[in-house]
Amino acid sequence: MRSTTELRAEILAAARAEFARYGLAGARIDRIAKAAKASKERLYAHFGDKETLFGEVALADAAEFFQSVTMAPEDVAEYAAGVYDLASRHPEHLRMLTWARLEGFTLPEPDRDGHPIPATVLAAIRAAQADGRVDPSWKPEDLIVLLFGVGLAWAHLPDAVTGAADEPTVAHRRTLVIEAARRIIAAPGA
Question: Is domain 1-48 given the CATH code 3.40.120.10 in the classification?
Answer without folding.
Answer: no
